[in-house]
Amino acid sequence: MSRAISLDLGNLSEKNINISFSEISQALKSKSNTKLEIEILGKSHIPTSGESVITDGSFIAIPKNILLQAFIVARLVLFKYVRGCPSDREQSLTDATAIILLVDSEHLTAANTRKRLLKKCIERNQDKAQEFFDSEICWVDGYLTSHLHRHTKSPTLWAHRRWVIEQNKLFVSAEYMMQNLNDVIFIAAQRHPRNYYAWSHARWLQSLNTVIPKDMPELSISKPIILAVQDWCLRNPSDTSGFSFLLYCLMRAPDPEEFALSVFTKTFRTAISYRWSQESIWCFLRTLATWKLRGEENFVCDEDSIADYPLIRNRICTARKWCRIYHLKMPELP
Question: Residue 153: what pLDDT?
Fold first, then answer.
């Protein structure tokens, strides 16, 4: 969504902006347990008479002018009740924060207000705490994975998601981690390349210290997770943040050297086959070979197949040289 704000003042009235606020609020909370796919429509879309929001299941499209009209009301509601909100106006305040964060993903006051409202709801209804947590996660995941301007890389929204998970005190199992990768991390990273906020969130999930039941094993990074991350990286070879997370997983995995070697071999052969020269993939390969494998010995390939590709030959020579220099100098992992 463009940062430029241009309202059609001819259609701006108290009635219109209140209707816009009401209809957008209703659309955003209509699927409380389903991740929404939101898109902002530009001026090229001409809404039909009486049409403020286009919905199709979990897909929502909102004309930009309508959204900005709703934002006017949302901002008034927020600053009216932010310091003290009667219980009968809490839903309206929650709706206002959703609209404000849809327009401005870095609105910290709106995000913090949602936190306070969520805690109040849970304090009053302890038996529905999990339902409230799930609903909030679905809401923020929709913003983080939709085709929006800056939301997929919003530190405020990622921090909000982290806060909700911390409050929920979830045990992050391998299955839960895989679900988060497929449903949120991979999509957000695809929407915004080199999305270090998304991958940092994934690192945090991996290292989350929770109260683990005695009958459950200690959290470890499973092979399916590593293979899923590798598959994503091979479909996005220029994404250095993705390869950094893959390296992070491999460095902390309790698996034997053979598994790391299989990941290295597949990645190396794919890079050679497609003549990839991106620094991200070669940095990953040389670091993995130096830190966990046998250094330059791993960079063995058919020299004739790359004879006509000087850039690839240069990448391999550089990687071998890098391994010779640093192979015995890499520090031990904590």
Answer: 95
CA distance 309 to 312: 6
At 330, is the secondary structure helix, strand, or coil? coil
Query: How high is the pLDDT of residue 11?
Result: 57
Q: Domain segments of the chain: what residues?
A: 14-169, 171-254, 268-329
Residue 57: left (phi > 0), alpha (psi -120 to 50), or beta?
A: left
- Distance, in Å, from the CA atom of 98 to the CA atom of 92, rounded to the nearest integer, reads 10
Residue 85 zone, left/alpha/beta (φ > 0; ψ -120 to 50; rest): beta
User: Shortest CA distance to 103 belongs to which of 134, 126, 73, 127?
Assistant: 73
pTM of the model: 0.89
pLDDT, tens digit (0-9, with 9 covering 90-100), for 194-224: 999 999 999 999 887 544 445 544 444 578 8
Q: Which helix (H) or strand (E) holds 102?
A: helix 90-103
In the structure, how many helices (H) and strands (E) does the chain have? 14, 3
